[in-house]
Amino acid sequence: MNFDPLCLLESILFAAGDSVPKDQLAEIMEISEEAVAAAADKLNEAYRQQGRGLRILLLEDSYQLCTAEEFYPYIQKLKEPKRRQNLSPAALETLAVVAYHQPVTRSSIEFIRGVNSDGPVNKLIERGLIEEHGRLDAPGRPILYVTTQEFLRSFGLSSLSGLPDPEPTRINEDENGETMDSFLD
């Protein structure tokens, strides 16, 4: 049977409930990855033109069906408020280190931050914002950490290229009291 690719894509993404890699969609739909991307773009445009409440979200090389951002306040009323605390400054700092330096080991995170990072790393894993991504080929084979699609969703990013450029950090003052800018590597 031949189905309209837009309807087929919408149905698959609705049933999946989570993001689906573009190559997997292409295989399921029996079309090229380019055709999947074109179908997602057409479907998004149709949603916008018709004032619909759905969108197709691109997360790296995966697509996910989601609600339009402008309806978030109303959807929140439907859901029971979660008693979820905001991330601590230490967790946010650790998350920034992982986002900008990934894949990165715990010892590298601690070196950059200058403090033990066991607690923040564990909290970020628990929240699904970072995950293990293999091991470094070095003595002790330390775990490498990367950000997740949940990180991208939480911060409204399509990919890591959407991260802002890091701000300069003031680290030194010369003899005249002038500060000199430096970027963390």
Q: How would you summarize the topology of this molecule?
A:
Layout: H1 5-16, E1 20-21, H2 22-29, H3 33-49, E2 54-59, E3 62-67, H4 72-78, H5 89-101, E4 104-105, H6 106-113, H7 118-126, E5 130-135, E6 143-147, H8 149-154, E7 169-173, E8 179-182
Antiparallel strand pairs: 1-3, 2-3, 4-6, 5-6, 7-8
Could you explain the architecture of this structure?
The protein has helices at residues 5-16, 22-29, 33-49, 72-78, 89-101, 106-113, 118-126, 149-154, and strands at residues 20-21, 54-59, 62-67, 104-105, 130-135, 143-147, 169-173, 179-182. The longest helix is centred in the first third of the chain and has 17 residues, at 33-49. The protein folds into two domains: 5-69, Arc Repressor Mutant, subunit A, CATH 1.10.10.10; 89-169, Winged helix-like DNA-binding domain superfamily/Winged helix DNA-binding domain (Arc Repressor Mutant, subunit A, Orthogonal Bundle). Helix 1 packs across helix 3 (33-49), helix 2 (22-29) crosses helix 3 (33-49) and helix 5 crosses helix 7 (118-126). 43% of the residues lie in helices and 19% in strands. The radius of gyration is 21 Å and the shape is globular. With 185 residues, it is α+β, with helices and mostly antiparallel strands. The protein contains eight helices and eight strands, in the order H-E-H-H-E-E-H-H-E-H-H-E-E-H-E-E. The strands form three sheets. It has a three-stranded antiparallel sheet.
